[in-house]
Amino acid sequence: MEKIALCSDHAGYELKAIIAGYLESQEIPFEDFGTFSADSCDYADFAHPAAAAVESGKCTRGIAMCGSGNGIAMTLNKHQGIRAAICWLPALAALARQHNDANFLVLPARFIEPVKAIELVDIYLSTPFEGGRHSRRIEKMPVK
């Protein structure tokens, strides 16, 4: 069974707690890389360890959030093995998996309601990568 890496900054803390509760209710294993309070903090302090866990195989995929989703996605995507996609609509979450083999779902916590976030998590976790022509494109992403 896959294990999900979770991380957020202070702006995403409340939504991360909701998602963690949802994952627990669905018996989906996860590791929470923080933050662990709503106190102001820097998203990179939590994104880098979560990204490393996915790159190493300790976790299979991840879910991350910050206020806009931008800062934490940019940080995650600095890692060569990470493909983090900011999603706020169901079609974006599905395409991030189908076409881009996204291994991090990034949620814009200040712009998305918890019910919508849970819907996106479900889509992200249940949608497979299509492979085929998309595999060639994924292989070209890392800087050589």
Protein described:
The protein is 43% helix and 15% strand. The protein contains 6 helices and 5 strands. It has helices at 13-25, 44-56, 70-76, 90-98, 114-126, 133-139; strands at residues 4-8, 30-32, 61-66, 84-86, 104-108. A 5-stranded parallel β-sheet has the order 2-1-3-5-4, with helices on both faces. Helix 4 links the parallel strand 4 and strand 5. Helix 1 (13-25) packs across helix 5 (114-126). It is globular.
Radius of gyration: 14 Å
Oligomer: single chain
Poorly predicted parts: none
- Characterize the main sheet: 5 strands, parallel
Helix content: 40-55%
Shape: globular
Strand order of the largest sheet: 2-1-3-5-4
Share of residues in strands: 15-25%
Secondary structure: elements and pairs:
Blueprint: E1 4-8, H1 13-25, E2 30-32, H2 44-56, E3 61-66, H3 70-76, E4 84-86, H4 90-98, E5 104-108, H5 114-126, H6 133-139
